[in-house]
């Protein structure tokens, strides 16, 4: 069976893949999803009927990039603890159609998730029920009205990067939910989990770092201006 994702690294305890845009991480309705596909892959690879697959973190359906999955419950616990303690480093690339207000900056907001509308809103001051969020970005390249940003989130809240960039006037290309008027491919936005760095649960002193190849869609042509 051909799967939508590609393997970056696999061990007996975890699997790092490059998730494409338009693919869900977990089962929802009848959409294709990573979890079911990885279970099928492991069945074929190991012959076990019920292989364990634990979702360590998530990428939104229209977002691509490095995704880490646990193959054992103990590994999931260890990796979840690293995420909770902010020991994991995540780097995203985003393409915007509007110039950022500065070439590099740290931006801070207070975020509220609107469960009913499946979106988030941010404010400059605290609100009832809000959570403080922040990220740092730098401008990597610009060409023909497109701007490539490298983003480091300091927290990991729902749609955080999407809503924070929109709040500074830089909605991500294709992200109509947060104000983009520019089209990307269907079910895709120009946000990519470029790099993930974490400690291997089986060798706690060893850091693992994986890069996900940049998508080949037209929206990402600007990435050719950088060293891949």
**Which spans of ≥5 residues are poorly predicted at pLDDT below 50?**
none
Q: What is the 3D form?
A: globular
Order of helices and strands: EEHEEHEEEEEHEE
Helix content: 10-25%
Mean pLDDT: 94
Count every beta strand, where a strand is a DSSP E run of 2 or more residues.
11
Q: What is the makeup of the main sheet?
A: 11 strands, mixed
What is the end-to-end distance? 30 Å
> Given the helix and strand composition, which structural class is it?
mainly beta
Number of helices, counting only DSSP H or I runs of 4 residues or more: 3
Strand content: 35-45%
Radius of gyration, in angstroms, nearest whole number: 18 Å
Q: What features would you describe in this structure?
A:
This protein has about 230 residues and is mainly beta. The chain is built from 3 helices and 11 strands, in the order E-E-H-E-E-H-E-E-E-E-E-H-E-E. It has helices at about 35-45, 75-85, 160-165; strands at about 5-10, 15-20, 55, 65-70, 90-95, 105-115, 120-125, 130-145, 145-155, 190-200, 205-210. Strands 1, 2, 3, 4, 5, 6, 7, 8, 9, 10 and 11 form an 11-stranded mixed beta sheet that branches. A hairpin with a 2-residue loop joins strand 8 (about 130-145) and strand 9 (about 145-155). The two termini are about 30 Å apart. The model has no long low-confidence stretch (mean pLDDT about 95).
């Amino acid at each position: 069976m051909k799967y939508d994702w590609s393997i970056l690294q696999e061990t007996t305890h975890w699997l790092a893949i490059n998730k494409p845009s338009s693919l869900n991480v977990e089962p929802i309705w009848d959409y294709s999803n990573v979890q079911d596909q990885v279970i099928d892959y492991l069945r074929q690879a190991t012959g076990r009927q019920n292989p364990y697959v634990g979702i360590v973190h998530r990428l939104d359906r229209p977002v691509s990039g490095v995704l880490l999955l646990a193959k054992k419950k103990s590994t999931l616990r260890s990796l979840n603890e690293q995420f909770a303690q902010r020991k994991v480093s995540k780097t995203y690339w985003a393409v915007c159609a509007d110039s950022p207000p500065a070439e590099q900056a740290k931006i801070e907001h207070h975020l509220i998730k609107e469960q009913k509308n499946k979106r988030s809103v941010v404010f400059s001051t605290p609100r009832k029920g809000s959570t403080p969020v922040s990220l740092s970005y730098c401008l990597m390249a610009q060409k023909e009205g497109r701007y490539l940003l490298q983003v480091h989130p300091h927290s990991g809240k729902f749609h955080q990067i999407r809503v924070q960039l929109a709040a500074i006037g830089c909605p991500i290309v294709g992200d109509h939910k947060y104000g983009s008027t520019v089209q990307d491919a269907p079910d895709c936005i120009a946000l990519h989990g470029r790099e993930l760095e974490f400690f291997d649960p089986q060798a706690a002193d060893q850091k693992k770092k994986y890069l996900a190849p940049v998508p080949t869609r037209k929206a990402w042509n600007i990435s050719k201006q950088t060293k891949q």
